[in-house]
């Protein structure tokens, strides 16, 4: 079995209204040392793949096909055998 | 300046309907090697803190006060100077 952790965040060029909203809420709570904050998605998935390369391929495909909006988001991932 | 990456996920005891929905969608797309998947939140924040311990304290406090639902979620974070 393989375990993948997938981190999905907004592309730099894309406005992140949610991040801006969180930042102003934090400033209202007097966390003025918060310079910037962005919110993304974080997936943890277990894969019954036959090999690490199969698991790697599955991770890339499920990101492309479902988990990541390619127009607005980028992603990084970690993959290990468990 | 300090950079923190915060990973928020459901507590194990909490049902994750979103993860279940994603898993069945992936199975309908024939990704049958996906054994399980959970979705959480991923924050990247830059902090103008005076010291690493101040930054660490800010991260813990903003998680407790705003970013994490303590009843249903747990979090981990990484903190480094940039």
TrEMBL record, chains A, B:
Protein name: Phosphoribosylformylglycinamidine synthase subunit PurS
Single Gene Ontology BP annotation: 'de novo' IMP biosynthetic process
HAMAP family in alphabetical order: PurS
Catalysed transformations (reactions): N(2)-formyl-N(1)-(5-phospho-beta-D-ribosyl)glycinamide + L-glutamine + ATP + H2O = 2-formamido-N(1)-(5-O-phospho-beta-D-ribosyl)acetamidine + L-glutamate + ADP + phosphate + H(+)
GO CC aspect terms: cytoplasm
Main localisation: cytoplasm
Enzyme class: ligase
EC number(s) reported in the record: 6.3.5.3
């Amino acid at each position: 079995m393989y375990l993948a952790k997938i981190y999905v965040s907004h592309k730099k060029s894309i406005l992140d209204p949610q991040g801006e909203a969180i930042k102003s809420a934090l400033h209202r709570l007097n966390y003025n040392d918060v310079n910037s904050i962005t919110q993304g998605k974080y997936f943890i998935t277990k894969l019954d793949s036959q090999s690490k390369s199969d698991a790697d391929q599955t991770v890339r495909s499920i990101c492309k096909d479902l988990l990541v909006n390619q127009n607005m988001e980028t992603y990084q991932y970690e993959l290990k055998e468990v």
